Amino acid sequence: MAILEVKDLKKTFGKNPVIKGLNFSMAEGEILGILGPNGAGKTTTLQMLLGILTPTSGTINVFDKDISTHKSDILEHMNFSSTYTDLPWRITVAENLIWTSWLYNIPDRKQRLKKIKTIFRLDKIWSQSFGSLSAGQRTRVNLARSMVNFPKILLLDEPTASLDPEVAAYMREFFSDQRTKFNTSIILTSHNMAEVEELCDRVLILKEGSIIGNDTPSNLAKKIEFSHLRLRVTKNATELDKLISLRKLESSIDDHNYTITIKEKLLPLILYEITKKNINYSEISIDKPKLEDYFLKIAKGGSSEAP
Amino acid sequence: MKLHRIWGLTLRYLYLFKHSLDRLSDAFFWPTVDIVLWGMTSSFFAKNLEGGGNTLILGLLGGIILWIFPWRSQYEIAVNLLEDLWNRNLVNIFASPVKFGEWVTTLLLLGVGKALISFIYASFLIYFLYSANILSVGLVLVPWAVLLIMFGWVFGLLVAGIIMRYGTKIQTLAWTSIYIVAPFAAIYYPVSSLPSWAQNIAHFVPASYVFEAMRAAVDGTPLPLANLLWPTFLCLVYFVIAIAMIYRSFNHILKRGLISVD
User: Fold this and answer.
1) Considering CB atoms only, which of A54, A84, A129 is closest to B254?
2) Domains A2-77+151-216 and A225-288 share a fold
3) Residue A262: pLDDT above 60?
4) What residue numbers bound the domain in which B54 lies?
């Protein structure tokens, strides 16, 4: 069942159409990624979903209610974390979480804050002013703030951008758990493709205000037909050069390390020819296409096979 | 309107007050400076007057401490908005269940609270420094305070609306705007001492009626309360206009996106 439904959403700034008719929905407990190059309209879309930007036309229904008329009721069960916002710098982490918690109807406020403090490892910075924290600590506090109401829908804009790898992995695990245990739906924008592949059930690819891809991360990656074959050649490198030239393959060479871009279906044939021509190698790896490859293709202006 | 949300917003501004030396100095330092400077000045002039010296002191100091009401209530609205813009916190507020009316109500109430704190402090100060007791005018202080606070709200809302629309590049309005009307409010002198064109403007400045009434009360010739009907009516009209304007500004920035406001 769709918990969020966006229909024909458009936004124009002056004469500049930024969002050109988005249609998508999100199911309860789904983690939906929104990807796109800079200026694609990701943040604009998130702003409209939060009711802090008025669409030019179209509708956003959350929990079967129109956000333009039921914003307060909807936001009681939604929250967000974004790199575009801060919390008041001069007041402490604890005070920031206390005042924001009062904006929601939380029955067990003290217990909730205690829990948030533990989950987000805030003990050591609890009494420090927000402004005195490092970028990573601020991100953690912002994420903690986004969980004060234990939202049913969570919008995360670059949630792990400034976190160290260990904390980022911990946060990913936490959000994944939230979905598993509480059926929380999450919308995620990130430039970390591995994170999107790990977390998201489905990804929307935005480009110039339109959805040009809407599928699972693995299906989107499959739209890229090329793999990378990496070899460390130890004998008969000239034979390999000839083979690359004959097959008109794209390649790069660094010392004896070859990276050859090959269509997936040609891989067995090329490997066969390498063996046949007695080309010896000490290392071999095949990189299958990833979401990042798809994203790069889109960002560079390549056409999309997406629906 | 939910009280817990208004309380949450109030906490946010009170925490800030607690941690900000500059905000504390706004509440106590400037009233002290004004009272000392004007109190000394009026005491000096009062010495050269035969009789009526105390009236002069109380008249001037009364003007200073009653001006706290519009000044503080205006200032709190505008500066608290600025604090949220400086801290990129406006999105946190409006991407929560908080309604616009709840936010405005919080700012209005904070203005009242801070004005009362500064007023009580200043009243004690003039009593201890100059033995002048503003409370001696009696209960009429209540309607005066209400009118002056409303007048401050009007300015605060108008300025906040303008800042929302045009951003912090015009933030100086938060500190200065109300002083545009100060000469016509006749804080320290009677309206009759203004040039006639300025008197015409003063008739549309509700605060001028309060300061006239204060001076009359200090002189021992209190004016009837009915004299405050017209300024009350004016205040209400201005207040409705100010609310409509800030609401319009808010809707305007929602079309641009709250993130874009800086």
Assistant:
1) A54
2) no
3) yes
4) 3-260
Predicted confidence (pLDDT) per residue in A142-160, tens digit = 999 999 999 999 999 988 8
Which pLDDT belongs to residue B40? Answer: 87
Domain A2-77+151-216 has CATH 3.40.50.300: yes
Is A72 close to B94, i.e. CB distance below 8 A? no
Q: Does residue A306 carry a pLDDT above 60? A: no
DSSP 8-class letter at B137: G
A146 contacts in chain B (CB < 8 Å) = none
Q: Are strands A31-35 and A185-189 parallel, antiparallel or unpaired?
A: parallel
B236 interfacial to chain A (CB closer than 8 Å): no
Mean pLDDT over A192-200 rounds to 89
Distances (CA, A) of A224 to A61, A218, A264, A305: 34, 10, 9, 9
The string of pLDDT tens digits covering residues A201-212 is: 999 999 999 998
Which of B2, B92, B262 would best serve as a mutation to test chain A binding (most A beta carbons within 10 A)? Answer: B92
Return the domain boundaries, chain A: 2-77+151-216, 86-144, 225-288
- CATH fold of A225-288 reads Alpha-Beta Plaits (3.30.70)
The partner residue sitting opposite B92, judged by closest CB among A54, A85, A102, is A85
Compare CB distances from B95 to A13, A52, A98 and report the shortest one's residue: A52
Helix (H) or strand (E) holding A11: strand A2-13
Tokens 């609306």 -> residue = B161
